[in-house]
Amino acid sequence: MNFFNSSNTIILAVVDESKVTPVAIVAIVTGLLCVATFLLLRNFYKRLRRLRKDQ
Q1: Where are the alpha helices (DSSP H) in the chain?
Q2: For this UniProt entry, which segments traverse the membrane (predicted)?
C-alpha cells in the first residue's frame, strides 16, 4: 500500500494495513462481481419477459 500517494489513501487510512490481506481484497471484489452479475441477470430476465409479452 506504500505505492499510493497520500491523496489516494483517504479511504485506506481508516483500515489497518497489516490486517488487509490479498485474500480479503479478492473476496470483496468477487462478492461485488457476484452481486453485479445477479443484478444484471435479473434485469435481463425482466426485460426478456416484457419482450415476450409484447409479441
Answers
A1: 22-54
A2: 20-41
**Cα separation, 27 vs 20, whole angstroms:** 11
User: Which residues fall within 8 angstroms of residue 1, CB to CB, at 6 or more apart?
Assistant: 9, 12, 17, 20
pLDDT tens sequence across 24-34: 889 999 999 99
Amino acid at 8: N
N-term to C-term CA, the chain: 55
Q: How far is CA 2 from CA 6, 15, 33, in A?
A: 9, 14, 26
pTM: 0.57
9's enclosing H/E stretch is none
